[in-house]
Amino acid sequence: MVDNYNRVIDYIRISITDRCNLRCIYCMPKEGMEFIPHENILTYEEIIRLCKCFAALGMSKVKLTGGEPLVRKNLPYLVKEIKSISGIQNVTLTTNGILLSDQIEDLAKAGIDAVNISLDTLDPDEFEQLTRFRKLDQVLEGIKETLKYNIAVKINCVPLREDYNNNNILSMVSLAKNQKLHVRFIEVMPIGLGKDLKGVTEEDIKEIIEKEYGTLTPYKASLGNGPCHYYSLEGFQGKIGFISAVTHQFCDSCNRVRLTSEGYLKNCLQYANGIDIKSLMRQGINDEALSEVIREAISHKPKEHHFKAIINKEKEVNHLSHIQEDGEQITAEELESRRMSQIGG
Questions:
Q1: For residue 84, which of 63, 57, 55 has the smallest C-alpha distance?
Q2: Is 26 labelled as part of a ligand binding site?
Q3: 20 is in an annotated binding site
Q4: Residue 219 assigned as binding residue
Q5: pLDDT per residue over 134-187, tens digit each?
Q6: 254 labelled as ligand-binding?
Q7: Which of 59, 199, 271, 336 could make a disulfide contact with 54, Cβ separation 3.0–4.6 Å?
């Protein structure tokens, strides 16, 4: 599956729900969330059918996300069914870890290949401030239980300027010292509530780490499906990674598309445009026609995002029509306005 910019698209991120048992400040408001009615989200059977189409088109990697995917019942069944599809090589999960200790055994039996756990701090008070719930112990227990299985574990941390301190960065890094897991620092993106927050730069984080632990040595081997670049630290079992989509833009090598829980195929996180696959399926489209629709949609994946224009406030969003994409103007209406939980993390 190759788009119009000769990028191989082999990775699909599928949101199975917009619901979550936390309210992280960069993702959801404390109150007032309106969730999608269950009948309006993709059924497991629809997701499995789509994964067969994706696999036939050359996609081999599937990430299950939310909201929080573990709040949806019978997730191990979905994992097992996707893993059984010819051409699917890798099925992974992104979770906040709250329910992980109770479900990881069944997920492991179903064949899950890797688990990414979102965790921004090891301080219980800061955790409560960031997530609005006091459930850090459940997350740590989930990590502990998952490490008992032959499953790759990665910790996703989104450091924010409001909570920026060296000790927090170093405590997160320390998780990779004596445990077989990788810690990744993810740059906050100007999507949804993230537009009002400021993150910590990759360069600042590296400086903090190296003052404490020594030189970060680039690690060249692949450790996953996405764009993260990793470093080794002497004496550490795990690696330290960075995903800096804004300041270290990697659009030229982007290999993924997203499917929302409502069945909307998105080619780029920043853009609102895409295609309503769920409606086509429920109207009776056959697999051959459905695959062709997917192929055509993905072929028009945008060349790149324009997050910097928003973060730097060089232009207001309502005046972004000057940005050119192969000669075409990008208007404010074309930019994504939904929250991350509604898109799929």
A1: 55
A2: yes
A3: yes
A4: no
A5: 999 999 999 999 999 989 999 999 998 776 788 999 999 999 999 999 999 998
A6: yes
A7: 59
